Amino acid sequence: MKTARYIFIGAAALIMAGCSEGFLSNDSPSSMEASTVFTSPTRTEQAIYGVYSLLGSNNGYRNRMACGYVGLNTDIEWSTKSNGSGDEPDLMIYNCGTANSRVFSTSGSDLWSYLNTMIERSNNIIEGLEAYGNVDENPTQAYFLGEALFLRSFAYLEQVKYWGDVPARFVSLAKDPNGVNARKADRNEVYEQIRLDLKRAAALMPWSPEIPAVNAQNNVGRASKAAALALLARADLMYAGKAVRPGADGFDVTAPDAYAVTYNIKDPAERAKVYQEALEACAEVIAAEDYKLADDFARPFKQICADMVTYNQMEHIWVMPFANASRGQVMNYNAPKLSTDAQSACKGILPGYGGGSSNGHICVSPVLVFSFEKSDKRRNVTYMTGQWQYDNAGPESTDPDVRAAAFPGVDPNANRLYLKHSQINNFYLGKFRYEWMAAGRSHTGTDDGVDFPVLRYADVLLMFAEAGIGGIGGDVPQNTTGMDPVQIFNKVRTRAGVSTKGSITMEDIMNERALELCGEYVRKYDLMRWGILREQMVNAEAWIRKLAADGSRHAMNIGDTMFFKFGYDATIGGWVMDSIYGLNIGEVERPAYATTANGWFAKDIFNSDSKGYVLGPSQYPIFKDEEQLETRQYWPIYNRYVAASDGALWNNYGYGNE
Prior knowledge:
Layout: H1 34-37, H2 41-52, E1 77-79, H3 87-92, H4 111-132, H5 139-163, H6 187-204, H7 225-240, E2 242-246, E3 259-263, H8 268-289, H9 299-305, E4 316-320, H10 330-334, H11 340-345, E5 362-364, H12 366-369, H13 379-382, E6 383-384, E7 386-391, H14 400-406, E8 416-421, E9 428-429, E10 452-456, H15 457-468, H16 485-496, H17 506-517, H18 523-529, H19 533-548, H20 550-555, E11 561-569, E12 574-581, E13 601-604, H21 628-631, H22 639-643
Antiparallel strand pairs: 1-5, 2-3, 4-10, 6-9, 7-8, 11-12, 11-13
Helix pairs in contact: 2-4, 2-5, 4-5, 5-6, 5-7, 6-7, 7-8, 7-15, 8-15, 15-16, 15-17
């Protein structure tokens, strides 16, 4: 069970600015003098909790961003909610409007408000500690200052990911009341401040096991030196990369509908310096924490599902720490679906499941399914080819003799828990699973409280490799780290069980990040910073449509059928697919051993009968319009906030400012 403080804690409003008709208030930021708050480590930490608490708020990361809104669809991930019409599918298919009800609230309970309030609370903490915290003499207060800088940087980087250019407001409203309507700024200004803040945060914060604050020490839910350095590298790679920017060549407030996909930094030499900073930040983490790469690819995800929080036993570097069963819907949306019968039955079978909601709508794309090498150990962790079902397995076969062969020792007519096969449009993300949850949880509603992963060590290794070869422009930095990007890259491949490479290209980096990080909500922003989101999505859609048709699928040397058998897993108390054939290119014929008498099933996963293709445009949309893959990469600033900003906020990319 978790032992740390959780972000649902509403710290007494020591350092807070509430939502108003805009998103901030310039009222007094605290009910207690800053000189009283920030001379006390206990009160300072309560203020820090007040920043974390916003991550668990309604309509934010708790039940919006953690359920796919943060980064779908991509070329390798797909939401089953993409079908139909309305605000939710609009988010998935790049068609968000200025008042989308799924991410905008008339009450201010939405991500724009929460992130801006996180920034304001962090501003107050930073200024209070600088004035009264005695950070030069008190290591605990110095850590809290670093943590506040980290949280402000995280909030700003999230804003840039979702909206592009945003107000740069690094001073509290107490110091600058006019900041309540700060004008939208070029995102490069934000990047520059984030870089300064994260380097300072890394200098102030120790490695996690050495943190002096008891509640934060060795706790993956609290920021550390490694978290600051990893987030710095992520910000640097975004900054040195490309982006959709307003105007013909950058930040142009006079051209609201014009845009260009261009570098954030025009000078290659300056980009190389930013890559060098990312390289050195990753190298510092690798040198200190190379023990963090788990031997088993599944282990980091099993630990997250089982509520592990002990930093030095985990691969994750920082997670959003949601509270057990009261905040966070990670499993509800990201875990493979439980049928209605299974939801009832699993309460007594899966040890950590208490009967909670199971939407299960995050799936992997067929593009990813057929991209894994045969020996890649990540395949069987990254996706699952079925959903949990509880019945007599009649949906797999109506023949009791077939069921008897497939489930030896089970009465053919008896109910059993098993993974019922899905068709390829419903191959679920497998990194979060109910069967991995810790026993004794109270997950009975929509909130399960499983932590939301943000930074993982394998990502640091791949960022080092990318920075080392100079990113998409080949702006190779000076490497004085003593580490070889190819060797660091190969650590990830060796763990996956695939052959190492003698040299690496950006194409290698792009492919490896897809295979390693699928379902961790980084792919969309990788494609954006590489300047290829439109290209990749169009290519993926064309490939999927070819896959949908018998003739072109067969020409691609891909068959129609998945062959599998069941094996009993006593730790789960259910039957899982322990042998699968047909999901690699070239596996088109039924193996001689895969007979019904031996307990094997053969299922058409493309539904190429009279019901129609499951990968057709109406059944499997991944975007609405090709040009919108650029003009709708960013969300609009919601119309309510634009209207209340006195001209300080506006929308680009043809959204309008009504």
